[in-house]
Structures are given as C-alpha cells and as structure tokens.
Write a structure and sequence with these properties.
This protein is of the alpha+beta class. The chain has three domains: about 110 residues, no CATH class; about 100 residues, Immunoglobulin-like; about 130 residues, 3-Layer(aba) Sandwich (Glutaredoxin), CATH 3.40.30.10. It has 13 helices and 15 strands. A five-stranded mixed sheet has the order 13-12-11-14-15, with helices on one face. The protein has a four-stranded mixed sheet with strand order 4-1-7-8. α4 runs antiparallel to α5, α5 packs antiparallel against α6 and α10 runs parallel beside α13. The chain starts with a helix and ends with a helix.
Length: about 375
Amino acid sequence: MIKKRFFAYSVFIILIFSTPAAFSAEEQILSDTLTGYVLTVKPEDVSGRYLYLMRRAGGDWQTLDSAMVKPGEDVVFRGQTGHPEVLYLMLQNSGKPVAFFAENATITILPDFKDPTKTEVKGSASQDEYKDYLALFDSFTTKKQGLYNEYMKARSAGDKQKMDEISKAYDDIAAQEMDINKDYVASHADSYVTPYIIRSNMFYSLSLNELKHVVGELDPKLDNSSFVREMKHHIAILERVAIGQKFTDFKMPTPRGDSLALSDVAGKGYLLVDFWASWCGPCRNENPNVVAIYDDFHDKGFDILGVSFDNSEANWKKAINDDGLVWHQMSDLKGWGSEAGKLYGIKSIPHTMLLDKDGIIIAKNLRGEALRKKLEELLN
C-alpha cells in the first residue's frame, strides 16, 4: 500500500557516507599487516557517555565492546571479523545507531548520532562499495521526496484521484529501483555487500522463487554472511508453509485465558488464518471487510482464526470488541516475537492464509474483494 511505502521511505535511514580520504604511508603499512580491525571513532562532544560497538544477529543486539567517551579523546575498538560485515555504533541514551561496513583494516569514523546519514567513514573498502551502490539511486531520491510531499497534500485535501496518480508514479519508481537492484546483485555475486542489499532492499518484494534464485546465485564464499544464513533460513520456512503444503500446527492463549490450537479449528471447512494486531492500521482498516465476508459465508462453511501480534492484552481485547471480531482469536502477546509469526516466516501484517477442508494452504494474502471472489468460487 502507498501509505506503508511512503511511511517506510520517510523513516528509512540510508547508510550514506562521504568518500574516504587516502591513507598516510603509516596507515597503509598498518592496514596491510593487520589480522583484525582497528576502529578509531572520533565522537562529537558526548563525553561522559558510553559508546557501544554492536552486531545485529538473529534479530538480537550483541555488544562486542564498549568505552566511555572522554573529553577530547578518540575511542579505539580493536577486534577481528571473519569477513566484511555490518556493525553498529550506539551511543548511550541515543536511539539512532550508526551502521557501517567493518572489515579487518584501519577504519576511522566521524559519527553523527543525531543524523547518521551525515556520518563519515574512511578505510573500509566495503563501505566505499556500498556508497557507490547508493549513488545509483541518487536520481530517484528527490523524485520520491517530491511524491511523498504531494501525496500528503492530496491526502489532506481528500483528493483520492491525485493520491492514486501519485501511487502509480511511486510504483513506477519502485519498479525501476528493483531492476537496478537485480542488475547489481547479479553483477556483484561475490561481494559481501550484496547480501546486505538483498536483505535490506529486495527481501520483502521478491516472490519465494525469485528469492531462491537470487540467493542461489551468490558466491558460495558468502555462505558465512549472517544475511545469507538468515535468508536461507527464511526460504526453508517459506517452502514448508508454501501454497500446496499442509498447515503447521501451533497453540496459543485465547482472550478467555484458555488455549486453542490451529488444529482445533482447521479441517472443518475453509479457514482463513488472519495475522493482525490492534496497533496495525492497515489491519484495522481491513477488519470491516473481513466482518462482512464472515457474515456472508460463515453459514456456508467458512471460518476465521485471528492470530494477533499484540503485546498488550488490554489493547488486543479492546480491538476485538471495537471491531466486532466474533471469530476465534489467539495471541501469545509477544508482538513481532510471535511464535506463530516465526513458524510461518511472517515479516509484515496484515497477512492471511486460506486453508481448505483438508488443512492445505490454498491461497495467501487474499483480502477484500479478492477474498470474497475466492470464497464465492469455493462455496457457491
């Protein structure tokens, strides 16, 4: 949806850094003989606060090192990495991590924790490569910002026709950007930057077969990349829960406090498994359509199981009541850590899955009129 795309565009922080300066002779000699990295951070005036060097792994933060910033002094971190990877600098009491490509070299960083896009990095060849990649999209940046501004004005004015026109223009740009991404990863299949690009900029837009192809074309040496491992794990999950496969069971608490399993309601007719949350605007906007479809088809053999990605039990129950969701509901109240979400590889909501009378997945992400037409075909 255009709202989701524009929101993502407005909050997405691009890793864009300045062109690195040339090494001095002493720095070059040190770089050539390094078995690890020497990371020199020249922080702004943030003395008295801790600076953390971190890695993101499996959705969790790992602290590799830390140091208190002292007035007028650089912070130096030393370590070793098996291959170029993305690491992060996090300042105490700051929610804006500075990301950069680390490798076994002498690297200098001038971080800007207020605006990470203004951070300067020198000494990382992988960072230079990523900067060259970002430059391919320079011509689109101004266009997308302009479209975003136009869209917000049209929305405020209630001009749906204009909003649709802007959405089409934005989709055209997104298609051009995807073509650039595909060309880039195909021609840089041996670069450690490429898995990061796939994971960050292509992952959610590719079909399962497209994702398998793109990842499968990567050089085998990249198999130790955390991004490649994550994507291969996700592919295995998606293959297990693909259309044509039987459902994988799970069990969660209901609003009443008892437990319900998917197998308790599957296999008795056509069942829509609806992954949603009270805080998800698109989910709540879709709920009136789902209510109407439930009312029209429930007596013909159609049922729904709502699986919420909520954290708050009170908000979850209130949304069920406010939206009139009278069908089965369950949630482990773990938010994006939902066990069902992990089991089915769900990275965005709303997400739906339609099961037939034998518990076989026959469709995904049918909503509104598309879901109604499918049920008319199956039940009328």
